[in-house]
Amino acid sequence: MTILSASLAIAEGDYAWTGTMELADPASFQRIQIDDPVTLELGGEIFQMMVDNKTLSRDGVSRPRLVVSLISPTARFTMPRAMPMEGMWESPVSARVAAEEAVGKSILWDLVDWTIPGGRLAVYDAAPLDVVRTIAEAAGGVVETTPGGILRVRHRFPVAVPQWGRVTPDHILTDSADNLSCRESHRARYRVNRVTVRGWLPSGGHLSAELDRRVDGLNQGHTTFHSGGSAHLLVNHGPKTSIQSISASSGALLPNADQSYTISEDLMFDGSNSATLSQPAQSIQSVIWLGNDLGALTLATDGMAVTAASSGVAIARVTFTVRSRSWSLTAPEVVAGLDSFPVQVRITGQSGDQVGDGEIVCQRGDGEHPGEDISDPLLATTEAKLSRGRAEIDAGEDLQEISLTCVHRPGVMPGQIIEVHDALMGRSWRGKVTGVAHEAIGPRITTSLEVQRVAPSA
Which top-rank group of organisms is this from (predicted)? Predict the structure, then answer.
């Protein structure tokens, strides 16, 4: 098979290498079929690809152009080649294991690996690659494919921006041996050096308190009270939470007998088979489907998560039993000479779940440039939240876009650190590769790079 020209490229955020090769031999073009494996060698670097499509074009004068489009074999993990999947990981599972189960292959994992709690990861009508991408992006990662055709998950910034000048670069480019052209530009950015990251909080660690508003409850439906009177409180907690203390700003608190009662509420199923009750239930008494029927509901051990027999868009009116702790607050007649005053009640609990903080703040420097808050239910450990927070802060640095063209450079990939020496461009600098493109026309091979560097100060 004679190849007249070839090109291959990958950009950060694109999971696969894509490219083309122009053939000289019509017989070879005819033999090639869609999805055939292709091994392409460019300047000594081996790429495992597959045929994506074929194009035959004629201008009526010169010979026909025979072009074969290529893509990494990991294209089999996404539409239209992959079958959509649905399901839920009901037991705790590591992020890497869940991703590998989705695609059925090993993944080169260069990202923090953490445990995703059971019932938090559910998919419906999703491609396997969508599952991997969802997991990776939760912790600040991206999905890509190596030249050898292996799926890889890595941190969006394998090296934090402030560390670029302190590590050994993956590649060094000089004007005497490598650089052919360079173009500077600048993309305006809002600085970000402080973000709040919220993750999963165990529903088994639920703790809430309210006035007893039941018409047939301890307060007989009353929600306002006179000084010197008593108000009754209901405290709800999950099976893995213990109440440590309860205190009030004024007055006296005395425990009541536990209260058992029923609640009815409507649960929304938005294309999935899972939903969450507002508070822990002892048991489900009845289910009425208001339209689409997704089947029987199963109550999880935390007393809050419920799972339907099938997935879909539906509303279920659920009646369930609740058992609450109860306290009576007796207020004094007068406080600070006032007979009308507020009372604050504080209830603290402790969860037995071994998980990280529900919310953390990631900050670099003075923290005067806060970004948007991040909330992702898959983030169940502090390490995973820190990984996501650092990715957002690194992306919020004052980064400049640089486009380079150099003689062929094998082994370069997005995420790598390069060092550039070019006297005509001023001082030497370092940056992170965000895009790679190789082009071969006859014996000539060039490499084009997209790079992010810290914008030089004025």
Answer: Bacteria
Distance between CA 318 and CA 63 in Å, rounded?
71
Phi, psi angle pair for 96, to nearest 5°: -65, -45
Q: What is the DSSP letter of 357?
A: -
What's the CA gap between 351 and 325, in Å, rounded? 16
Token reading at 139 = 């912790």
The enclosing H or E element of 440 equals strand 429-441
Residues 6+ away with beta carbon under 8 Å from 395: 156, 157, 192
Q: Which of 49, 71, 93 is the last residue of a domain?
A: 71
Position 11 scores a pLDDT of: 97
Q: Which domain holds residue 332?
A: 203-351
Model confidence, pTM? 0.69
Tell me the H-state helices in 151-251.
none
Q: Dig out the tokens for 242 from the structure.
A: 């213990």
DSSP state of 335: B
- Is residue 318 very low, low, confident or very high in pLDDT (cuts 50, 70, 90)? very high
Extended strands (E) in 163-229: 171-174, 179-186, 194-198, 207-211
Average pLDDT over residues 344-372: 76
Q: Which residue has the higher pLDDT, 291 or 354?
A: 291
Q: What is the pLDDT of residue 200?
A: 64
Size (the chain), residues: 458
pLDDT per position as a tens digit, 196-222: 998 765 555 677 888 898 989 999 988
From CA 116, how far away is CA 138, in angstroms rounded? 11
Q: Which of 24-28, 161-165, 422-426 has the lowest mean pLDDT?
A: 422-426
What token pair was written down for 319? 């009646």
235 in a structural domain:
yes
Yes or no: say if 414 and 12 are a contact pair by the CB < 8 Å rule.
yes
Which residues, at least 6 apart from 84, have a Cβ–Cβ distance to it below 8 Å?
125, 126, 127
- Does any domain span residue 400? no
Report residue 281 as tokens.
């239930």
Look at residue 378 and tell me if it is in a domain. no
Task: Count the domains in the chain.
Answer: 2
Q: What's the pLDDT score for residue 205?
A: 66
Say if 23 falls within a structural domain: yes
Q: Determine the 3-state secondary structure of 57 from DSSP.
A: strand
Question: Which of 170-174, 254-258, 420-424 has the lowest average pLDDT?
Answer: 420-424
The residue out of 321, 351, 381 marking a domain boundary is 351
Region of residue 367 (left: phi > 0; alpha: psi -120 to 50; beta: else): left
pLDDT tens digits, 36-51: 999 999 989 999 999 9
